[in-house]
Amino acid sequence: MIKHGFLIGAPTSGSGKTTIARGLMALFTLKGYRVQPFKCGPDYIDTKFHAAVCGRPSINLDTFMASDDHVRELYDSYGKDADVCVVEGMMGLFDGYDRDKGSSAEVARVLDVPVVLVVDAKSAAYSMAPLIQGFLNFRHDVRVSGVIFNRVGSSRHFAMLEQVCEDLGVECYGYLPKNASLEQGSRYLGLDFSEKAESGLLVQLLENNVKWQRLLAL
């Protein structure tokens, strides 16, 4: 299996995983890394955005329509010459067609890749602790390596969220601040990368506020 790669998941849809996944793909690519994108499930729209950002085709990984072995073969084949593989999850991390069957968590288990959990922290601080703890402990064969917080209101807000991660013993990879320009530029399927100013702002915010080098080392 590819040694450098991770899956971006979230507790629920609308948490910001699509925006952060595409932003990280763009950031890594701008830094000169060969990024191989993947998408959980049969979604064909997100894959087009991935391809536009990374300059190489994004591949669907779907354990409902394909066997575990086939999913692993796709990951290995398309990712073999990449510096990092980024898998964008779908819906909530454990949402599948039958409980967690076919979910992003199942893809992470099949590939044995760590999960980076994107958590929408708007209007909450230490209440994030029981939420994140639940995802850390729900299944021990799904490795949540750390958290990126989305829609953080201030440096004080982020400091409180860092305390959550410290108390839980999970790494905090950083945050994406609440920004009206990004929210206005989003669509129902995520950030519209046809808006160059918005995508450039996103990349800058992630570079400044996320430990992206740590993500590359996963």
In words, what does this structure look like?
Helix content is 42%, strand content 21%. It has helices at residues 17-30, 45-54, 68-79, 104-111, 128-137, 155-168, 180-184, 196-209, 212-216, and strands at residues 5-9, 35-40, 59-61, 84-88, 115-120, 144-152, 171-177, 186-187, 190-191. The longest helix has 14 residues, at 17-30. The strands form two sheets. It has a seven-stranded parallel beta sheet with strand order 3-2-4-1-5-6-7, sandwiched between helices. It is globular. The protein is built from nine helices and nine strands. The protein has a single domain (5-211), classed as P-loop containing nucleotide triphosphate hydrolases (Rossmann fold).
